[in-house]
Design goal:
Blueprint lengths: L1 H11 L3 H19 L1 H10 L3 H10 L7 H14 L1 H15 L4 H19 L1 H10 L2 H5 L2
C-alpha cells in the first residue's frame, strides 16, 4: 500500500496522510463489494491491503460523519447494488478529505494499481462485482 500511497500523493498533489486515509477507505469499500475470496486474491498481491481495508472500515470521516454519507447511503438504498456502491465510494472519499475534483483521478489510479498488481482477470472480476468503479473513472 505504501507504493500506492506515494503515487497518489505525488500524482494528485495531495498530502500523503490524505492519500493513506482515502486509500484505506477505498480498500474497505472494494473489500465490501468484492467479497472475501476475490479481495483475498487482491490482498495476496498488494501488501497491506487487508490492514488498509480494516483501517478504512473503522475510520470515522474527517468531517465527523455527516450529511454527505447519510445522503449517499439513502441514494445507495434507493438505487441498490453497485450503483449505490459507487455513490457511497465517492462520498466516502470526499468525507475522508479528498476534494471532489480529485475523486475520479484517485479511483482511476487505484484501479490501475490493482490491475498492475493482480492482472486483467482479477480486475475484470472486481469490476463485475463493483461496476461503478468504471463510472467513477470516466
Amino acid at each position: 500500500m505504501d507504493e500506492l500511497i506515494q503515487r497518489l500523493a505525488s500524482q494528485l498533489g495531495i498530502d500523503p496522510s490524505l492519500a493513506k486515509t482515502a486509500s484505506e477507505k477505498a480498500m474497505s469499500m472494494i473489500k465490501d463489494n468484492a467479497g472475501d475470496d476475490l479481495f483475498g486474491q487482491i490482498a495476496d498481491k498488494i501488501p497491506g491491503a487487508s490492514d488498509a481495508a480494516a483501517s478504512g472500515a473503522a475510520a470515522q470521516p474527517a468531517g465527523g460523519g455527516g450529511m454527505l454519507g447519510k445522503l449517499a447511503g439513502m441514494a445507495s438504498s434507493a438505487l441498490g447494488g453497485s450503483a449505490g456502491g459507487g455513490i457511497e465510494l465517492g462520498a466516502a472519499l470526499s468525507e475522508s478529505g479528498l476534494e471532489a475534483d480529485k475523486v475520479g483521478g484517485f479511483v482511476q489510479m487505484v484501479v490501475e494499481f490493482i490491475k498492475e498488481k493482480v492482472g486483467d482477470e482479477v480486475l475484470e472480476q472486481l469490476l463485475a462485482k463493483f461496476p461503478m468503479l468504471k463510472t467513477l473513472i470516466g
